[in-house]
Write a structure and sequence with these properties.
Blueprint (H helix, E strand, L loop, with lengths): L4 E6 L3 H16 L3 E2 L8 E6 L4 H20 L4 E6 H5 L1 H7 L5 E3 L7 H11 L3 E3 L10 H16 L11 E5 L1 E2 L10 H4 L4 E2 L2 H13 L4 E5 L7 E4 L2 E4 H9 L6 E5 L8 H9 L6 E3 L7 H6 L6 H14 L4 E8 L6 H14 L3 E6 L7 H5 L6 H24 L5 E9 L1 H12 L6 H4 L1 E5 L5 E5 L8 E9 L3 E6 L22
Parallel strand pairs: 1-2, 1-3, 3-4, 4-5, 5-6, 7-10, 10-13, 14-15, 15-16, 19-21
Antiparallel strand pairs: 8-9, 11-12, 17-18, 17-20, 18-19, 20-21
The chain binds iron/sulfur cluster.
């Protein structure tokens, strides 16, 4: 019998990447085989993001291209899953009536049953978590939590046993209700997973060869779970994971600046596996804008926090997110953001032009009044400034040896390989020999080496630097290391 094929496309944050991985695991267990041919697949699932209008437009365009193949095949299933499905199910169906499956991020454990339902009945299947609202009681939340937890507990099926890096969800949802953000409406209130489950999942991943774990949460540092009547904080969770044998690195994203206790900084300083990297979205350098965004900190408090973080963890690198052109942002307010970027020495930043999202407080109460040309100009200015900062800080790495967890061939090498193979030739040694990996501080490093190094920790001597990438060569001594090479030769955007 011909095996049924599945195409999954993921947009948005790491949380969606993990959700897709788990959905694929569930459907593989039902006999589906992954394909890269969207138009020819038996089941097409688009895992969507609602954070910006542009991301939703892309989903609609993808769905539009599926109209024809779908009308030619009775047995094809087209599904929209994730945040856009939760936010606007009626709008999707109205614009794209050929969609026959809609499933919000809190209901993804039901995907195999929903797909089956559509195939049997040819009726549209819908699963949404609209019970999750700001007014949910604690009991309602925990009931809701029990149902969504099932997706993470399906993990056994979602690991292919080859990767040395993996995401582990520690928390779902968000309670912050920043005025621009749709996440609390699409992913529901904040729920932290029990620490025992997280540690067990990490152990299962380690047993399958994973060496680096990235803990995911919309505001990951506000994690707290009750255990035998006592609170387990995020720093406690880090300590438990740090004690697992076979694990080399622990990362976490995304942190919320308002909730960042010194206990986490102490954990970063004292626990050897916790990497010296923080993704700490500040969004604006202007107190007035931060207030309008309902971020619960000031620019001064943010600057204090990163100063303290660098005292605790001297090698720390920082990344941040900014929204430019938020409702009413004046030139003077934007200049405060520029000043913050100038003084903060971020490793990199992500800059987004404000995009009004339906249902958010900003959409209801404020005008999206900054012209697109101004938003674009501010976006370019901020990125250009950061590029100069990144080049300057990356150049300080030249001559140093850094510990790199090798991920595989670099993108350029993969492209060159594919081009060679299309022409029916062997890949050139030069093209296939470029590897890519990351330092503990999340710097991307490209260097020549054998693919057999994938999944291992190696030392690389940095020889050149651009704003985004360090280039180097394999090193044998750790002289001048960014971090000591102490673990032996084998080792590897969301919220906030
Ligand atoms: S921006 Fe981050 S903290 Fe604010 S509501 Fe959205 S997910 Fe929560």
């Amino acid at each position: 019998m011909k095996q049924r094929t599945l195409y999954v496309e993921t947009m948005g944050c790491q949380m969606n990447v993990l959700d897709s991985e788990l959905v694929v695991g569930q459907l593989r267990a039902e006999g589906y085989e992954l394909t890269s041919d969207m138009l020819g697949a038996d089941v097409v699932l688009l895992n969507t993001c609602s954070v910006r209008e542009h991301a939703e437009d892309k989903v609609l365009s993808r769905l539009g291209s599926l109209k024809k193949p779908k009308s030619a095949r009775d047995d094809m299933v087209v599904g929209v899953i994730g945040c856009m499905a939760e936010r606007d199910p009626d709008g999707i169906v109205k614009k794209m009536p050929h969609v026959d499956l809609i499933c919000g991020p809190g209901e993804l454990n039901k995907i195999p049953a929903l797909v089956d339902d559509v195939r049997r009945t040819r009726n549209r299947a819908v699963a949404l978590s609209q019970a999750m609202s700001r007014r949910s009681t604690a009991i309602e939340r925990s009931l809701e939590y029990d149902s969504v937890e099932a997706l993470d507990l399906s993990r056994e099926q979602g690991v292919d046993g080859r990767s040395s890096q993996a995401y582990v969800r520690v928390q779902r949802g968000c309670d912050k209700f920043c005025t621009f953000c749709v996440v609390p409406f699409t992913r529901g209130p904040e729920r932290s997973r029990p620490p025992g489950q997280i540690v067990n999942e990490a152990q299962m991943l380690i047993d399958r060869g994973v060496r680096e774990i990235t803990l995911l949460g919309q505001t990951v540092n506000s994690y707290v779970s009750q255990e035998e009547g006592r609170a387990v904080r995020f720093s406690d969770l880090l300590a438990r994971l740090d004690s697992l044998d076979g694990l080399d690195r622990i990362r976490f994203v995304t942190s919320y600046p308002g909730d960042f206790g010194d206990d986490i900084l102490e954990a970063m300083r004292d626990l050897p596996k916790v990497c010296e990297y923080l993704h700490l979205p500040v969004q604006s350098g202007s107190d007035a804008v931060l207030k309008r965004m309902r971020r619960q900190y000031t620019a001064g408090q943010f600057v204090d926090l990163i100063g303290r973080a660098r005292e605790y963890v001297p090698d720390l690198t920082l990344a941040s997110d900014f929204i430019v052109g938020f409702c009413g942002e004046t030139d003077a307010e934007f200049d405060e953001t520029v000043a913050l970027v100038e003084r903060s020495a971020f490793k990199n930043i992500f800059v987004f032009k404000y995009s009004q999202r339906p249902g958010t407080v900003a959409e209801k109460r404020s005008d999206d009044d900054i012209p697109d040309a101004v938003k674009r100009d501010r976006n370019i200015r901020l990125l250009k400034l950061q590029e100069e900062v990144s080049i300057a800080t990356n150049r300080t790495m030249i001559g140093r040896a850094v510990e790199v967890l090798v991920e595989g061939h670099s993108k350029r090498a993969i492209k060159a390989q594919e081009a060679e193979q299309t022409r029916g030739e062997e890949a050139t040694a030069e093209a296939s020999g470029q590897l890519v990996g990351r330092t503990r501080t999340d710097r991307i490093v490209v260097f020549p080496g054998e693919i057999s190094l994938a999944g291992r920790l190696v030392m690389v001597r940095v020889t050149a630097a651009t704003a985004l990438t360090l280039h180097g060569e394999l090193a044998t001594s750790g002289n001048g290391d960014e971090t000591p090479f102490q673990r032996g030769p084998i080792a590897l955007r969301i919220g906030g």
